[in-house]
Amino acid sequence: MTQPTLLHISDLVVQFRQGRRTPPFRALDGVSLTIAEGETVGLVGESGSGKSTLGRAVLGLGPVHSGDIQFEGRDILRASTRDRRALSARLQVVFQDPYSSLNPARTIGQTLAEPFLAHGGTDRKAVSRRITSMLERVGLPADTAHRFPGQFSGGQRQRIAIARALMLHPRLVICDEPVSALDLSIQAQVMNLLADLQQELSLSYLFIAHDLPVVRHLSHRIVVLYRGQVMESGPAETVYSDPVHPYTRMLLEAVPEPDPRVQRVRRSAREANRVLGAASGGTGCAFVHRCPHAIDLCHRERPDLQPLPSGRESTDGGDRTVACHRSAELHGPPMPRPTTGQQLESAPSGPERKEASCADSE
Asked: What is the Cα gyration radius of the chain?
């Protein structure tokens, strides 16, 4: 049974002025995506691709030039200040850096109580009970509330940030690279925690990251972003194991390879493609400057995001789309998974996730 849509983004454009005589820079250029109730959508791309800009636009923290964002069926771009304030209880965020996202001068209890107080909560006992409950949910003892952020490790601080985001029972949590600042083993524990909380609380996630193997383990669907445009989207496992767009393949090839010979071959191929792209120019496809398969049409026309050609559909029946003029030709065999991805096997893998402990080893 298809779940109702919780977040719907259509043709979103975000641009920033660069000066009076310079055209504005488009950080997002016609991005569309949806998130259903209880679903995790992974948004992946390199630094500067517009991932965090999209998250900030949904949260109302950045300007939007055009497009539409609907949350729970309501237009939130044109919501009043009062409605936007009420919306924040159902739409929360976990930021990337667990060291800067918590106020070092406030106790953990004060930090967790702040959302309640901001929304008019006055029952101190109810707030205290909620703080204790949320700390237990994220695997921290109740006496954590009386301590300061400087007394905790990075993984523990990120658990506290997750607890703060869940204090008001949100329906959608935007996770803006929540594990990129953590060690690999702690990444898996935090992702396990997010998956557990999703099942217990019926949460939806927009999971933003630059590491495709990490995104694959937690997401149901993946959206690949490059220079503010969607290159490819589809079920997480299928996009990861059988990427079609050259940029998605390049992201997977960029994953560190333990075999130095394979790594040298990959590096040489990337350098060759970069030189080719730098000399080719063009205003069509956003990826044309780096694509080893670019043709004249790619320079002239921007490809539309279209369903995959026959014979390359998702194995689980999910919709797959790709923005590439040559998608019908670039079938090829499915790519082998990067061997380093095995280091995250203790992390959740979408709906097929195995139960795992989320206790910190720090």
From this structure: 21
Strands 66-71 and 40-44: unpaired
pTM here is 0.83
Single-letter amino acid, residue 107? T
Cβ 92 vs Cβ 166: under 8 Å: yes
Other beta carbons within 10 angstroms of residue 10's beta carbon come to 13
Q: Write the CB contacts of 77 (distance below 8 Å, at least 6 apart in sequence).
A: 64, 67, 68, 69
Give the residue among 6, 36, 34, 42 at the shortest CA–CA distance from 348.
42
pLDDT tens readout for residues 77-107 = 988 888 888 888 899 999 988 888 899 999 9
Measured CA to CA, the distance from residue 1 to residue 51 in angstroms comes to 29
Placement of tokens 């630094």 in the chain: 47
**DSSP H helical segments within the chain, as ranges?**
51-59, 81-87, 108-118, 124-137, 154-165, 184-201, 212-218, 236-241, 246-253, 260-280, 296-300
Cβ neighbours of residue 141 under 8 Å, at least 6 residues apart? Answer: 135
Q: What is d(CA 224, CA 232) in angstroms, rounded to the nearest whole number?
A: 5
pLDDT tens per residue, range 250-305: 888 877 666 677 666 666 655 555 534 433 334 789 999 888 888 899 999 999 99
Both structure tokens of 174: 């935007």
CA distances for 305 relative to 31, 171, 175, 223, 296, angstroms: 10, 28, 25, 12, 19
Phi, psi of 112 (to 5 degrees): -75, -30
Return d(Cα 213, Cα 235) in angstroms, integer: 13
* Domains of the chain: residue spans and CATH: 1-90+170-362 (3.40.50.300), 102-167 (no CATH)
